[in-house]
Every structure is written in C-alpha cells, then in structure tokens.
Amino acid sequence: MNITELSLRRPVTTLMVFVSMLVVGVIATRMVPMEFMPNITFPGAFIQIPYPNSTPAEVNENIARPIEEVLATISGVEQISSNSGENNAGVLITFKQGNDIDLKAIEIKEKIESIRNQLPDDFEYYNINKFRDGANATLQLRISSNRDLSDAYELLNRNLQQRLERISGVGQVNLYGVEKKEIRIELDPDRLTQYNIDLNRLSNTLRRSNFSISAGKITDSGMRYMVRPIGDLNGVEDIENLIIADNNLRVKDIAQVSHTTPERDYARHLDMKYAIGLDITKESTANSVEVVNEVLAEIQEINKLPEMQGIEIYEMFNEADGILSSLKELFNAGMIGALLSIFVLYIFLRQISTTLIVATAVPFSLIVTLGFFFFLDISLNILSMMGLMLAIGMLVDNAVVVTENIHRYQRMGNSAWKSAILGAKEVSIAVTAGTLTSIIVFLPNVVNESFISQHMYYIGMAIIIALLASLVISLTVIPLLATKIKPPEKNNKETLIDKLSVKYAALLGWFLERRKISVLFITLLFLSGIIPAAFMSVDMFPRIEERQLRLQYNLNAAYTLETVKESVDRIEQYLYDNQEDFEIKSVYTYYTPDHAESTLNLIPDEDAKKPVTQIKEEIQENLPQIAIGRPAFEYISRNNAEQVRVFVQGESMETLEDLAEQVAWRLEQIEGFADVRSEAETGSDEVRLTVNHDRARNFGLTSSAVAQMVSGSVRGQTVQRIRGTDGEIDVVLAFQDVNRQTIDDLKNLPISIGDQTVKLASLAEFEQSKGPGRIFRQNRKTSLGIAINLDGLTSEEAKEEISKIMDQIAYPTGYSWSYGRSFGMNEDVMSTMLFNIAIAFFLIYLIMASLFESLLYPTSVLSCIFFGVVGIFWFFFITGTTFDLMAFIGILILMGIVVNNGIVLIDHINHLRREGLSRRDAVIQGGKDRIRPILMTAATTVLGLIPLCIGTTQIGGNGPPYFPMARAIVGGLTFSTIVTLLVLPSIYVILDDTRIWATRILHAAK
Fold this sequence. Notes:
Layout: H1 3-9, H2 11-29, E1 41-50, H3 56-71, E2 77-85, E3 88-95, H4 101-114, E4 127-132, E5 139-145, H5 153-165, E6 170-176, E7 182-187, H6 189-195, H7 199-208, E8 217-220, E9 223-226, H8 236-240, E10 243-245, E11 249-250, H9 251-254, E12 255-260, E13 267-270, E14 273-282, H10 288-302, E15 311-318, H11 319-349, H12 352-359, H13 361-375, H14 382-392, H15 397-411, H16 416-440, H17 443-447, H18 451-475, H19 477-482, H20 496-513, H21 515-527, H22 530-535, E16 548-552, H23 561-577, E17 584-592, E18 595-602, H24 612-621, E19 632-634, E20 644-650, H25 653-668, E21 673-678, E22 685-691, H26 693-698, H27 703-715, E23 717-724, E24 727-735, H28 743-747, E25 750-753, E26 756-759, E27 764-770, E28 775-778, E29 781-790, H29 795-808, E30 816-819, H30 821-852, H31 857-879, H32 885-914, H33 919-950, H34 963-982, H35 984-1005
Parallel strand pairs: 7-24
Antiparallel strand pairs: 1-3, 1-4, 2-3, 2-28, 5-14, 5-15, 6-14, 7-12, 8-9, 10-11, 13-14, 13-17, 16-18, 16-19, 17-18, 20-29, 20-30, 21-29, 22-27, 23-24, 25-26, 28-29
Helix pairs in contact: 2-13, 5-10, 10-11, 11-12, 11-14, 11-33, 13-18, 14-18, 15-16, 15-18, 15-33, 16-18, 16-30, 16-32, 20-33, 30-31, 30-32, 31-32, 31-34, 31-35, 32-33, 32-34, 33-34
C-alpha cells in the first residue's frame, strides 16, 4: 500500500495530520525571529589597537610588527594586514575557510598576551572584532542639539545608554562622541624641579596607592575576624592629599588635580551641528524588528524627560526598516507571482475547484516551512525569504502533474477512486525524482565550507523544506481532494491547448522522421550560445552606486581640530546652500586632526530626479578649495563591494609613496578608471629626540628610562582607576597645558637624577622633520594601495588594464606589486560556484540513473541543463544583464528545475513503451500527453518570478539586486521548456538507437 492509497483509505486521519501541521506552522511563524542577515561567521578578525598620542612609526615598530609576527604562528592563517597611524593601529587577520573564528579569536588573544612583555609598558588594551553578517549594529542613532553636548556624558549615559541597555533583547549599547570625565593630575614643571621629583618614581607611587586586599584572619575574645587593609582613593581630595615624598610632600604641592572632561581629538557633525553617536546591537537570538521597536518606543519616553529637551535624536541606520522593506517587497512580488501562477492554472484547467486544489500546495508548503524554521533554529531573514520567494513558482509543479494525470484517467472512464490511485502512482516516481533533483543541487552548498555556501544554506533550506512539503501534499491531500470533486467535463469544443497538442504531435513526428535535420538543428541550437556569451559582461560583484556619497578631505598634514573644523564648515555650508539642487537629505561628517570625511545621504531613488554620477559631477564643479587638503569622492556601492585596489610593496614607505603616485598618474590615463587615488597619507611634523647614551650613562640613566619620562610627560599616562559613583574613573598623570607645550618647554623638561635635576636638553638632541603617514603592511610586507573607481568597466576588464600598466613600471630591487583582495574574491567565488555546479550535475545524473535504471537515458535529460544555460546567455544578452554571483545562484536553482520536465516526459514515454506502444508512437503520444503539464509547470514558475525579474528589489533594501537570479531562471527555463518539447524526444531516440547499436555489437562480439 503506497502513501496515496493510505491517504484515500484514511481521509479523516490524513486531513487531521495536515491540519495539525498547519496549526503548528502558524504558531511557529509568530516565534520565528526576524533579522536582517543570519549570524554567519567569516573566518577573519580585526584587532583594534588604541595607543594615544603616538606616531605611526612608533606604533608600527613597537606594537603592530610584534603582533603580526606572533599571529603568523597561528595555524590556518591566509593573510595578515596591518595599518599603523597616529594614536592607533589595526591588524586584520583572515583564516582559511572552515576555521572556527570563535576558537581562533581565543588563540589570537593568547598569542598577544604571550608577548605582553615585548609591548610598551603603557600599552593598555586591544579589541578583537570577529566578522559576522548578523553582528553589526541593529540601530545607529545620532544625537544633536543647539546646546553644547561635549560635557554631557553623565546625562546621556544615565538617560540613554543605561535605559536602553535594560531593554530585553539589547546586547550592547555603544555611546561615542562624548567622553567620560577623568581625574587629571597636571604637573607643574617648576615644582618638579624645586622638589627634585623623579617622574618614573612618582608614576609608580600613584599606581600603588589604591588598594583593597585581604590580609588573613585574627582571633579576639573567641571571635574570628577578617583583616582587610584598605587604601582606596575615592576622589579628587584623596588624590590631592596623597603623600608622595619626604617632608609630607603631597600631590597638590606639585600638581593641580581636577575632575574634568578629557580634551577630544575628534568631532562629528550631523546637518552642520555637533553630533554624538549611539549604536545599539541586539542579542544574537533576539528579533531585530521587536528590539528596534522597543528601543524606539523607549526613546520616545526619554524625549519627554525635562533634561532631554532641546536634544534631537536621529536615525542614521535602522536595520528593521531594511528587513521590513525587503520582506515587504519580496512578499508583494511573491503574492503577484502566486496570483499570476493561479491565473495560468485556471486557463489550463478551466475549472475553479481543480485550480484551488492545486493552489493549496502554495500556502500549505510555506506555512510548514516556517514551522520547520522554528525547530531548525532558522530565522526569517533576507536569505531565507529569498528561498521562499524562489520556491513559490515551483510549489504547484508536483500538484499540477499529479492532478493532470488523475484527470487523464478520469477522462478514460475510470472511477474517481481508481483514477486517483492509478494517476498518482504512475507519476509518483517521476515527481519524487524531479523534487529530489531540485533539492540535490543545494547539497554541495550545505556540506561545503566556503563563505558563499554559508549564505546558500539559508536559501537552500527554505527551498528544500518547501519542495518536500509540496511533494507530500501532492501525493496525499491532492489525490484525496481530487476524488471529492467532479472531474472536468469533456468539452467537445477544441481548446487552444488541444489545437497546440495536435500541431505539436505533427511537428514532433516530422522531426523524428528527419534525423539529419534534427541533429543539425540540435547542434546549431547548442552552438548558438557562443554568440551571446562573447558579448555578455561578467562580474561576480558588480558595483551598483548607492544614493550616498563619501567625500574624503585628504588632509595634507595634521592640524588642530579647530583648523580642520573651519574647512569642514566651509564645505558643509556649500553643500547646504545647494541642498535642493544636489538632492541632499543629510550630511554626516567625522573629522580628526589628520582625517576628515563627509557622508552625503541623498534622497531615495523614488524621489530622485538626477543620477548619482550627475550629482557628483555638479558638486565637484564648484566645490570650494581648502588649503589643508584636497577633497575627492570615494566610491560607495550597494553591495558593499570594496573598491578595486592595486598595491605596491617594499620596505621604505617613502619609496612606496613615490611609486604609488607614479602608478596613480598612469592609471588615471586609462578610460573607465575614475577617482584614482594613492592611499598614502601625509605624515605629521614631528620632533625627533635622540638620547645621548654617553651623557645619560654619566648621570646613571638608561636611554629607555629617559624615553619613558618623556613619553609620560608629553603623552600623559593613565596611572590608576578608582571607583566612583558612575563607575570607574581614569586617573591621568600629565604636564600642565600638555597640548600647548612648545619645543622649548620640551627641552626644559626636568629630569630628576638622585639629588639633582637636569633639563632634557642636556641629555638629548632635537631635530624637527616630517614623520611618515599611516603605514600599511600586507603579509608582513610594507604596502601601499592605489584605489580605483570603475566607470563602465568590469573587474576582469580592469584587471587586464592594470596588469599592462603595472608591468611597464621599473621597480627598485625588493619592490613589487600585487592585486587587491577584490580580484581574488572574484576568482574564489567563481571557482566555488563552478565546483558546486559540477557536483550538482553529477548528483542529478545519479538520481536519474536510479530512476530510469539506465546509464544512457539520463544523458538526454541532462541536455536540458545545457540548453537552459544557452537560454540564460541569450536572455542576458537581449536584456543587457551582467552575469554576476546572483546569476550563478540562478543557474544552480535552474539545474534542478529544468530536468523535472524532462523526467516527466521520458518517464511517461518509457511507461507507454512498456504498455506495448512502438517507440515512435510512444514518443509522439508521450509528448502529446505531457505538453499540458510541462507548459503549466513552466508557466507557473516563470510567472512566479516575473515581478522579481522586472523589478529592482535588492537584498536587504541596499544589497545586490535579485533580478539577475530571477532572469537566469526565467530565461533558462523558458528556453529549456521549448527544447524539452522539441529536441529532447529526438535526443532520446538518438540515444536509444545508440543503445540498440551497442547491444547488437556486443552480441555480435560474443
């Protein structure tokens, strides 16, 4: 007894089972979390290393290089790159696919801690940031006000940060742009000289002054007591009265102690007002939309507080908006596609009841899929929603084939019961095999460890579950419902499909009788794919400009923050004076003494009248010139693809800067290369202090001790952290007016030596020069990048042009060049997808060989895949579509779809031959019987994707568009359907003749 017969014998049980599955699915849909992207990890990490008041060379030599060297000993490392600048460094480490980044992050921490003794003593902390698709800020806010918020840390921390952190589902709240107050001990140089204070000794005294330890237990009068010596410092007064030397010399005698806001070395503007940033990141298991809604509701309550009046909070980025807009667009496209599919079904079936029975496969399969999402811990995200959208057009395929075959038996005079049994049984193997082929194409991606495969998992699981659900309902509920309705009455009037079937049968007979013509036609049809392939543009990550522009100021030196602000204000004023002409929605600017950039958010696509390129040109035309830099636009793409980059590598940064300028000038001459820019940064003016070893030794000092004193006095150093009412407070030791000291002040810096004090000028020599800018290194080689924006060129075309130019340049010994990471990503993605397609092709063959019990007949069905690819090439050529990663995904999905029609046709031909029909009659009759379901399944799938095919819906609202994938499926399936009906029967006959000939030869050989 098969599953169809069981469902017919136990109708109530069958319906109850499916109703229960629907109920579970409906309940689960409310519990499936919604998020922008799933929590996909990339085997890489970025180590953020702050080191305040330091030079790029100092950071590179003392911190970045030692960390690079030790990280290179970790197994599985693919690439290490670092950049060292003023006040900070960053090290990016990527591992080979398959490595667990959580475990590797632990290794990274262990390795860095193992060389702590090699790093500077005042190096305090570092952050290890792991790359995850779902770990970005869920909500980015900007806080602005007409009043000064630079000293409002306690206000914003109390009313915003702490309140938002208490919301369920919020994982982290990061407040930046306003600094927490600190206790500053500002030393008076004259007093230091007067009291002969050793800076290093003073620093150590302050470090040891704050303690609370356990000293054991004592016994008194039969009681046991814990002894705990306490030396806690609780505020400014305690620090002022701290004794630091003989004669009761206290801190207040040599320094001024104050609880104050640290001086900022950066600023943010939003709409020409000083702005503060607030990033909210949700917990990994929380629902993004719910978290954002709760946060925004809490912010509305916060805005009502009297002390928050006059403070405006803007949304800079809202992940929930991206999720809802993308899901809404996908839902609308899916609904339109589903309605079009149902309309086509009705045209073919000509009966509302039958159409509705077949259409039930769509909502049932989708609800069951969402239920499985909950139990498999899969969220409703952009990728899984894409899978559901792609599945909609395929969900009715099995139901169409089963229903059509049941009606065929009913029209032959059989009872409803017998027709349901025979009709479902006859095609059960074919629809099962067809479903398996659609599912099996995702297997390589589910078990593969590549980064692309992690994304394909969520797309594939949605399609796999939905198709399995549709297969089960087509073999159980559909036959059951088919027995309960009156079959379509035989219409004596010939319909369009009937006329088409007769003409198709005649054309098929004509083809079969003319073997040479059919072979020539098949060959030419296949070879025709060469024509569009030669003209088709291929780019795995095509760059699609966002309605956003980034203006880099490219400062030529380090200036005071006030000086940079003057230039920023001037540029911003120009932009807002022409805000309407430039279609600017808002301008967000971030600047430091040596860096500034403005992000121009333009009005949305639907309201725009000008393309981004035109706006960029108009802004550049009258952009004010600034003396401290050279403003230029940087490319921003919707799919976050990095700019095309090329690197020059060597040892000397100065030599690399000269090479980079030469390369940039040459590349600028190439048509299609826009905004070519060397990434060399101009270094700041610096005072180089060279300690005289002999003089220092005569005074009983080492060079490192002198350097440490200078470093502590100029940079300032955090010597203590004390517990205050608002948490820990940093205690910073520095000289008075440290940011306004001159070279003469530095020369007169007092150095305590025993009972005497000498000036620094007597121990060291001073030299004023230009220091290096930011130092870049790749795989432990000093590197410098040249960034290129492409205008009308693909990455592959750009790669060829770059190679020609770079090979013409004469490089000094030890210097070379290399491509940026984006080129390697293109090749890796293409090779991964080709490998997955090859494996899927092989697995499809295995399934069909098992179905047909033949090694030859599956080859005829596989030809549908090749003709489907030819159809993609022609469709992309006609529509001018670039072949990208999404198109590759479309081919993968198409492979599983196009063979379904072939399986249904060949399986039916074999069935007719087993019933006694001649091969020619079986082929013609099989084609005539199957033309209707083949056209129906193809039409429903194609029409289901038409909304995506002609729309501009993008992944997440700002990612790559869906249409290349949809067009690949539509173009390939349409072309392959025609081939299946016309060419596949001829290929089947040719292969059958080959089998007969081979059998005859083998018998003759015996």
